[in-house]
Design a protein that fits this description.
By secondary structure, this protein is α/β, with parallel strands linked by helices. It has two domains: 262 residues, Aldehyde Dehydrogenase, Chain A, domain 1, CATH 3.40.605; 185 residues, Aldehyde Dehydrogenase, Chain A, domain 2, CATH 3.40.309.10. It is built from 15 helices and 22 strands. The structure holds nicotinamide-adenine-dinucleotide. The site of nicotinamide-adenine-dinucleotide has 30 residues, from helix 7 and helix 8.
């Protein structure tokens, strides 16, 4: 037992014991110590949670959107009061360095939740097309299944949008990082979110995740995680034609054109690739550089990577924490050991703390665009640099991926924008354009189906009805 243990599930507005006495261990990946236990939920717990969500649906969906916005507003206040705890909890269970954890792991979900509270308070008016009144209605009971890399943001992006739309939710957070989700449910209880609107069932993907995906009472499954699991969830939902929204993997390209500010492009590009130890689905893991700048870019990327301080997430100076688990570290090390490109920074021999799941920031140059290194999502601090000769070749290499989630382009504004338009990907940042938490977020190709965030994210949880008069 530890002081961070959370022995209950949240179902129908109350903390309730799980149906089985089994629990899952939560590890601190920087120390490899067990820091907490959470219930290993079962299909029976999912049944109870879906029933509670179903029972709450008509009342919640029947409220005016502005009334739901007031609940979201209270939820935001209660969650914002926990901002410090959120950053520390994610630092403990995931290993994100505290400074980044405060800004991204705590700051981002609060911004997203604030946005949904505001959007719901000022809903978009209904529309008339000829003799038809077009209305938008909640999809129903939503099963939300989330991963570990941005463990509160990914939960809030689903839960807040679904709630604003009028849906009720059964959430299963990642078994690797379940603790921060508990803070959201503490806040929900304090904010007086009506019973059954939000339900929490912790557990494994194979047991709880699969039970949610295949449950006849779940109208929509909103999933973020690996492409392999996304396919399994889609198959499970297909039998009942349940709606599925998927945010999956990526292998994004950062294109540094001939007329780019190379120093800025490389520095920002390396920072992007290594954010959260490279465990970011949008990470620019392929840096494509025009041949005229290639040697300079490789040298600069290697120097920048070598300058990263790797270590304890709670040390002020730490830039790169551990990977989330031993399995993830071993997987990333496997990619590095199989690579046949030129290693210019990091690698398996580079020093890292002896305890904890650390991998040194690693840069490969002269990477073959068709190789495993350039095609597979590694989900660790590994950057591949690839040269190109002209804009057409850059676009061809960038689009030579089964993924299409994000990307970057650096160059004169018009030329960079023209290249951005040609990239088959859900988002592109031109010359370091900042991430916008209200812009639609999602993937082309095997990076996903549907969009999250902002009004597009809200619409994902709505049905559209035409009423003729
Ligand atoms: P994962 O697919 O293993 O797990 C994600 C969630 O799905 C977890 O809660 C897990 O318990 C659950 N799950 C596993 N098997 C399941 C099954 N058969 N049925 C139902 N649920 C199941 O992914 P992960 O390892 O947690 O996260 C890393 C992956 O997620 C990476 O590939 C990354 O790119 C991707 N990801 C994508 C985005 C995005 O927004 N596009 C964001 C974060 C992570």
């Amino acid at each position: 037992m530890t002081s961070l243990d959370r022995p209950h599930l949240f179902i129908g507005g109350s903390w309730v014991p799980p149906s089985s006495g089994s629990s899952l261990e939560v590890e601190n990946p920087a120390t490899e110590e067990t820091i907490a236990h959470v219930p290993a939920g079962t299909a029976e717990d999912v049944d109870r949670a879906v029933s509670a969500a179903r029972a709450a649906f008509d009342g919640w969906a029947g409220l005016p959107m502005a009334a739901r916005g007031e609940v979201l507003d209270r939820l935001h206040t209660a969650l914002a009061a926990r901002a410090g705890d959120i950053a520390e909890t994610v630092g403990l269970e995931l290993g994100t360095p505290l400074k980044v954890a405060k800004m991204v792991q705590a700051g981002l979900p609060l911004t997203v939740l604030r946005g949904y509270a505001d959007a719901a308070v000022r809903p978009t008016p209904e529309e008339t097309i000829g003799n038809s009144l077009i209305v938008h209605e909640a999809v129903g009971v939503v099963g939300a299944i989330t991963p570990w890399n941005y463990p509160l943001h990914q939960v809030v992006a689903k839960v807040a949008a679904a709630m604003a739309a009028g849906c009720t939710v059964v959430l299963k957070p990642s078994e690797l990082t379940p603790l921060v989700a508990y803070l959201l449910f503490d806040a929900a209880e304090e904010a007086g979110v009506p019973a059954g609107v939000l339900n929490l069932v912790t557990g494994t993907g194979a047991e709880v995740g699969a039970a949610i995906a295949g449950h006849p009472g779940v109208d929509m499954v909103s999933f973020t995680g690996s492409t392999a699991t996304g396919k399994a969830i889609t198959r499970a939902a297909a039998d009942r034609i349940a709606k599925v929204a998927l945010e999956l993997g990526g292998k994004s390209a950062n294109i540094v054109l001939e007329d780019a500010d190379v120093v800025k492009a490389v520095k920002v590009g390396v920072g992007n690739a290594f954010l959260n130890s490279g465990q970011t689905c949008t990470a620019w893991t392929r840096m494509l550089v025009h041949r005229s700048h290639y040697d300079e870019a490789v040298a600069l990327a290697a120097k920048t990577a070598a300058g990263y301080t790797v270590g304890d997430p709670f040390d002020e100076g730490t830039r790169l924490g551990p990977l989330v688990s031993g399995a993830q570290r071993d997987r990333v090390r496997g990619f590095i050991s199989r690579a046949s490109a030129r290693l210019v920074a990091g690698g398996l021999e580079a020093p890292v703390p002896s305890r904890g799941h650390f991998v040194a920031p690693t840069v490969f140059a002269d990477v073959d665009p068709a190789s495993e290194l350039a095609q597979e999502e590694i989900f660790g601090p590994v950057l591949s640099i690839i040269p190109f000769g002209d804009d057409d070749e850059a676009v061809t290499i960038a689009n030579n991926s089964r993924y299409g989630l994000a990307g970057g382009v650096w160059g004169s504004p018009d030329r960079a924008l023209a290249v951005a338009r040609r990239m088959r990907t859900g988002a592109v940042d031109v010359n370091g354009g900042a991430f916008n938490p209200f812009a639609p977020f999602g993937g082309y190709k095997q990076s996903g189906v549907g969009r999250e965030l902002g009004v597009y994210g809200l619409a994902e949880f709505q049905q559209t009805k035409a009423i003729q008069r």
